[in-house]
Design a protein that fits this description.
The protein is of the alpha+beta class. Helices cover about 50% and strands about 20% of the residues. Helix 7 links the parallel strand 5 and strand 6.
Length: about 250
């Protein structure tokens, strides 16, 4: 009888399988392929339960039918299957992290709350805001840390191409000819003007104001300081301010 590895079954349960589904999948991996009759010799499940469990596994992409007479099942190759599941899980974790973090930050202390960020955390919060965008990203900046440039292009491609998010950025005249910024011009709308050494980003219903400390142009992340809020009145005010800057 093929060995039953409880650790493997428990791991598969964490990936969404029931104990019986995990047991049959592991059994099929051990046997290579099997009919319901053969499987029934290695498990205490009834044939009816085996049939229904195999149907679930097939519907979820864990196994396949390799012969119709008699009906014979085989497992999908574990390494490739689990790698795809890993990619799916990481994607779901990112969605859950971004959405729940945003909800959590908005709920603490009500909508009037502000959260302060410094250094690397400013870039991390900016990335989180942009990656969660559903409608719009409007930004104004007179400084761009070099660390931000690497993540900007792929992230903007994702929200613009896949979600149809509108992205507009107003930059200082000193920045408009930067090579790194020119690479983004085909992906989004860019305007330039006279700006203070500061910036802001509006993403849907939240806003973050930032600056480079000590008046620096912020070539590095360590100089950054920012304040985030989801206060509706501040967001509405910032939208008005952005429209004025954009139209100038």
């Amino acid at each position: 009888m093929p060995p039953e590895n409880h650790e493997t079954i428990e791991a598969l349960e964490h990936l969404g399988l029931s104990w019986k589904e995990a047991e049959l999948y592991q059994l099929l991996v051990s046997l290579g392929h099997a009919t319901v009759g053969k499987l029934s010799a290695f498990t205490k499940m009834s044939r009816t339960k085996i049939y229904s469990t195999l149907e679930n596994l097939q519907a979820e992409g864990w196994i396949k039918v390799v012969s119709e007479k008699p009906i014979t099942y085989a497992p999908m190759e574990p390494k490739g299957l689990l790698e795809r599941r890993r990619t799916d899980v990481l994607g779901y974790l990112k969605i859950a992290r971004d959405k729940l973090t945003s909800l959590y930050e908005r709920s603490r202390g009500g909508f009037s709350e502000t959260v302060t960020y410094r250094g690397l955390s400013v870039l991390q919060k900016t990335e989180e805001m942009i990656s969660g965008a559903e409608r719009e990203v409007n930004a104004v900046t007179a400084f761009l840390p070099w660390e931000a440039m690497g993540m900007m292009g792929p992230l903007l491609d994702e929200i613009i191409m896949e979600r149809g998010v509108e992205v507009k950025i107003v930059v200082s005249r000193e920045l408009k000819d930067q090579p790194e910024l020119k690479k983004l011009k085909g992906r989004l709308k860019i305007a330039s003007g006279v700006l203070p050494k500061a910036g802001m980003i509006i993403v849907d219903d939240e806003v973050m104001f930032g600056a480079a400390e000590k008046g620096k142009t912020s070539k590095t992340r360590g100089d950054l300081f920012a304040i985030w809020t989801a206060n509706p009145e501040l967001v509405a005010f910032t939208r008005i301010l952005f429209r004025h800057l954009w139209n100038e």
